[in-house]
Amino acid sequence: MKLINVKVPESARIRMERALSLFRQGNISTRNAAKIAGVPLREFIICASAHGIKPGFDEKMIEEETA
Question: Rounded to two decimals, what is the model's pTM?
Answer without folding.
Answer: 0.70
